[in-house]
Structure formats: C-alpha cells, structure tokens
Amino acid sequence: MTNGEVRMTSRPIGVFDSGIGGLTVVRAIRSRLPSESISYFGDTARLPYGTKSAETITRFAFEDADFLVRRGVKVIVVACHSAASVALEKLCARLAVPVLGVIEPGARALVAATRTGRVAVIGTNATINSGAYERAIRALARDIEIVAKPTPLFVCLAEEGWLDNEVALAVAQRYLSGLADEGVDAVLLGCTHFPLLSGVIAKVLGPAVRLVDPGSATAASVERLLREQGLLAQGAPATSGTMRCYLSDLVPNFQLVATRFLGEPLAEVLKADLANDQ
Amino acid sequence: MTNGEVRMTSRPIGVFDSGIGGLTVVRAIRSRLPSESISYFGDTARLPYGTKSAETITRFAFEDADFLVRRGVKVIVVACHSAASVALEKLCARLAVPVLGVIEPGARALVAATRTGRVAVIGTNATINSGAYERAIRALARDIEIVAKPTPLFVCLAEEGWLDNEVALAVAQRYLSGLADEGVDAVLLGCTHFPLLSGVIAKVLGPAVRLVDPGSATAASVERLLREQGLLAQGAPATSGTMRCYLSDLVPNFQLVATRFLGEPLAEVLKADLANDQ
Prior knowledge:
homodimer; alpha/beta; Rossmann fold; 2 domains; 6-stranded parallel β-sheet; 12 helices
C-alpha cells in the first residue's frame, strides 16, 4: 500500500444537508463506523431546500459538495433528501470523489419492510415532485404500489420542537389519515426532520404500519462503498474518528437542535462562508 | 427643475423582502400611489429570514438592497419585518438612497389602535428577539404594556395555504389564547405572511381585539417621505406606474402565491442572480 492510499483512507467522510437534520445520518454512520472521521456541512443560511426549485437546489448542492471536496473528503454523502432527489445524478457525474445519497438505501429498506406491496413515501415538495423515490423503488420492485405525498409542515413542526402536541397530531392526521385505509403497511420518512416526529406519525398510522428511516440503511451503504473502494479508515477498531461541523449560519439554538438530531452536543463547529471559499 | 431631478422622480420605488410576502406592502403602496413605478426583489432562494441569525439577515439585507440600488431605485422600502428589525439602522447609515422599514409605521398604527394601553406584537423569532418593535413602540408611548411573542409556524401555514382549517386554528390557539386574557386590545401582525391568517387569528382573539397590518401605514410613510424629499412621480394622477418583480428563485407556484399576496398576477417577473450581479 502506498503512502497516497494510506492518506486517502484517513480522510474524512463528507456529509451535507440543507441544515442540521442531516446529523441523523451522521449519527447512524458514527454508530456503524466509529473509526471514520466526518466533515459535515449544513447550509443553515439558505435552508430549507424542499420548497425551492430543482435548478436552485442543484446549484446549492454543487456549492455544498465543492466546499467539502476542498476540505479533502474521500466520499460525499448527500443527507438532504431534497438535494439527493434532484441533484444526485449530476453530482455523481461531475465530482471527483464517489457520491452517495439517501434515496437508493431508503428505497431498499422500504421494499424490504413491506408485506402487502403497498408503500408510501412522505417528504418535502421538492423530494416528492422529483419522483426520485418512486423511480428508485420501482427499479427494485416493479409491481409495488406507491403513494407519494408531500408533507412540508412536518419540517416546521420539527424546527419549532412541536413533536407530540395537539398541533403535531392535527397535522399528522390531515396528511396521513388516508394512508392506513389504502392498505399501506410501510412508510418511508423521506426527510431528515421526520424521524423526530415518528411518535405522532405512528399514532396516526397505527401499529400495523412500519416507519422506515433511511439513516441506518444509508450508513450500511457508506460502509459497503468504502470497503469496495478500499477506502475504510485503517485505525484499530477502538480508534474514534473526529467530527467537524461547518454551518453557513450559526442560527440561534443550533447547538440545542443539533443535540436533538445527533444525540450528543457538537464538539467542533465552524462558520462556513461559501461565497468566499475557494 | 433640472433634468436630473426629473429623472430622479421617475425612478421606481425599490421594495425587498425575504420572499413573496412583501407584495402585501407593494399592494398598499400601489393602491395609495398608483403613478409610482415599483421594482420588487424577493429573495426566494434563501427564504425564510426569520429563523436565521442577525448577522446573516443583515448580510442578506445589504445584498438585496444593493441589487435594487443598482437598478436605479429612488428609495428602498424594507418590507421584510425580520430584515427591518435587525438591519434597518445599518441600511439607513450606509445606503445612498433613503431607506424606510415597516417597523416605525407599524408601531405608530398599533399605538393609534389601542384603547387599553396593552398591546401585543407577533412575528418571527428574529423579529421578536431583536426587540425592534418594542423600542419603536416605547419611543412613541413610553408607558404602553407590550407582549412580544414569536409565532413562527404562522409562516409555514401561510406558505402551505392552510389559512382557516383545523390545523391553523390549533396553531393560533396555542400561540394566542393567552393574549385576550391579558387585556391586550391591539395586535400587530409583524410578518408579511400574517395578514393571510387574520381570519383565524381574529377568531381566537375575539372581536374586541384589533389586528394591525403595517402595510397601509408603511404606504403612508412612503408617500410622506417622497413628498418631503421632492421625489413623488410627476405623471398625471391617472398615469399607472409599472411593476417589475425580481426573484432569486422561481419557486414552484410563485405566481399562485404572488397573486394571493398582491391581489393580482405578476406581469413582469425576472430571475435575479445575486452572486453575479455587479
């Protein structure tokens, strides 16, 4: 093994999201691959992405990925479902490092979870309107029946911290009460914010419906990709990787919200200035 | 009158907002000053502002204002309450054209509306945390009692178009049901989105509480400022001003949402590229 290869394996995994929600994916990666270092970029100055046009989301996704590439990451994980839905293929085609999104792992986990062959995907307007999840699911199981439903207010509820009050329940009922009647038995949580609302979502859908969070499936895909490409960190299994978090805006309460998603406080947080980063 | 002065009066009024909601202020200006032309900038690529830090909102506000100054506007109206709350004084100090925000006109209208001397201001986190409305109100009426309350989910409801359903009612009750009990008799709608929800807000607060929308008060202030500075458009009263709208992202359904705020469809819409505009 050459020195160049050694250096490559010790580089961090790059993860980006429109904001802080992508830390749920980081949490899954760190749990599965504790020796890996991670550089995270959250575009908190321009969030959310899910309400914006595919053209603008794609431009933002390239700026975010380029920022991480300049920091020497060995792979890019697109944790934002909206960005992965509209820009993943273009990112794969144009970046010099491997790129992996939440869509294909999420679709695979959803197909594995259903017994009835009737599933649902919920997400932002950008994610659902792109049809990316439906294409990924049909590529795995042609005859599956899919209900795709935008549920944008779940993002606001998670940001406000209203996770299980009467408003959260009313929103979940309005969006989801029809799904159980349609025989759906597995629902993909197609936005990084939605796992925070899984309690109230489960209450509306009932115990027969399984909720699928792509986070752990994505972490498994990251491990497979790194192993295939000889990029796994070479430290002893007990060696802890480092975690560095870049945010484009140090939004109020970001540490509180980050802890909610990551399960622990952020140790190292840096303000990122995308406009002047070359 | 010199040619230079004639050209100055025929220049457009510049209005900016984080998104499309500021068209409610445009509507009030056009209704009051139909001969004036207006150039509007909506930062739809980076909205919302109200969840972000004062530092980032200030940076965005300068970029937005500079964009309009480069288009030759004779005055800048900051229609976004979050931007006006944190950046108005800095904009006034540094821009070469007069700058006017929604805060002072809104505070004046609120003070005129109360009988009990107990008022409330609702807005985004950035607007409420800035304390700008409280300072403006106290400068007009030192002994007034003010309840200031962030109500961020109202922004999401307006964006989703959920203006009077059971979710909108549940949100309004959670935020506002205490206000009437506190003897408040006038509430300032401190965000361009909130007038869309005035029906459900009024339902929770009851008929004794007056809702104050700063839009028309701001239009009156614009007229006064233009008159004082000799900048009123010189056309015959029947001459209609033009309206040009720049958006940093052509978000899905922008025409539908714009019509909701403006009361008519947008005639001329241009995509604005802030990063490459010099």
